[in-house]
């Protein structure tokens, strides 16, 4: 299995689609040497959100690197943000715009379809099944899609990202009362810069599964690496920074667990 699922007892499921670091051995010779460092990983999020199990949340965590397949893209490979630079379902470029594969070694359509069947489809099927289980138990489900990224990536966006970037597809992926409750947590603090539905409004998972009228409410958080780790290679965990932000993340998760539809 290319992911693990921990089943909790609250209405909440946390998805971390970009934390995987594994690269298949037969893929490595086709990659540029730099790609072996899997630099565009959402580093350490399973460690950062480890407290969520104790709060009763479900967690789904992939094993494979996003270089193999990006679980937060649609299987049709349509651009997530039209008109901007985007990486693909099976990325051929780093977030800097440089090539991931050696010349002539990028996956063809048949290989992409094989990766969808092997990795993408099982992850999404399980996401859907777990959300249905939680909704049946609680009457609703809350999906929290957790991400992190280097705070400055000129190929993808201008300037520096805020520390915390909440996305609700401009209020369409969750109830407005949940949107307000989650953002209020960020508004009550001043240690971290934050924005609601800014550059990152929610990826495919948030957009596809978030269906407030159907009882599934989805929220994405894109966090700048600088909030909890060192942003430059070898991308190490920063204990003091991580310890400082954990109480805020715990409050965010607890608010989503405690929230109930009107």
C-alpha end-to-end distance: 38 Å
What is the strand tally? 7
* CATH topology (level 3) name: Aminopeptidase
Counting structural domains, the number is 1
Major sheet: size, sense and barrel closure?
Answer: 7 strands, mixed
Percentage of residues assigned to helices? 25-40%
If helices are DSSP runs of H or I spanning 4 or more residues, what is the number of helices? 6
Task: Quickly name the level 1 CATH class.
Answer: Alpha Beta
Q: Give average pLDDT, whole number.
A: 96
- How would you classify the helix and strand content by structural class? alpha/beta
* Low-pLDDT sequence parts: none
Put the structure in a nutshell.
With 262 residues, the chain is of the alpha/beta class. The protein has six helices and seven strands; from the N terminus they run E-E-H-H-E-H-E-E-H-E-H-E-H.
Overview of the structural elements:
This protein is of the alpha/beta class and 262 residues long. The protein is built from 6 helices and 7 strands; from the N terminus they run ββααβαββαβαβα. The chain has a 7-stranded mixed sheet, sandwiched between helices. Helix 4 (176-187) links the parallel strand 5 and strand 6. Helix 4 (176-187) packs antiparallel against helix 6.
Keywords, separated by commas or semicolons:
single chain, alpha/beta, Aminopeptidase, 7-stranded mixed beta sheet, 6 helices, 15% strand, globular
């Amino acid at each position: 299995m290319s992911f693990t699922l921990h089943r909790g007892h609250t209405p909440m499921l946390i998805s971390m689609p970009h934390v995987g670091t594994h690269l298949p051995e037969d893929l490595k010779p086709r990659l540029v040497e730099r790609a072996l460092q899997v630099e565009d990983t959402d580093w350490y999020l399973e460690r950062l959100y480890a407290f969520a199990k104790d709060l009763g949340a479900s967690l789904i965590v992939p094993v494979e690197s996003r270089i193999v397949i990006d679980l937060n893209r649609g299987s049709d490979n349509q651009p997530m943000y039209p008109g901007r630079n985007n990486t693909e379902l099976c990325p051929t470029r780093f977030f800097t715009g440089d090539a991931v594969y050696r010349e002539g070694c990028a996956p063809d359509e048949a290989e992409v379809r094989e990766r969808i069947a092997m990795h993408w489809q099982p992850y999404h099927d399980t996401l859907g099944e777990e959300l249905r289980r939680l909704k049946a138990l609680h009457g609703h489900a809350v999906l929290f899609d957790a991400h992190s990224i280097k705070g400055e990536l000129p190929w993808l966006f201008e300037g520096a990202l805020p520390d915390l970037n909440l996305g609700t597809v401009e209020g369409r992926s969750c109830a407005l009362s949940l949107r307000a409750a989650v953002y209020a947590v960020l508004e009550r603090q001043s240690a971290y810069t934050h924005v609601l539905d800014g550059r990152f409004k929610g990826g495919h998972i948030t957009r596809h599964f978030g269906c407030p009228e159907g009882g599934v409410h989805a929220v994405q958080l894109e966090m700048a690496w600088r909030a909890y780790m060192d942003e430059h290679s070898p991308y190490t965990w920063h204990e003091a920074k991580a310890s400082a932000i954990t109480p805020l993340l715990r409050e965010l998760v607890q608010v989503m667990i405690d929230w109930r539809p009107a």
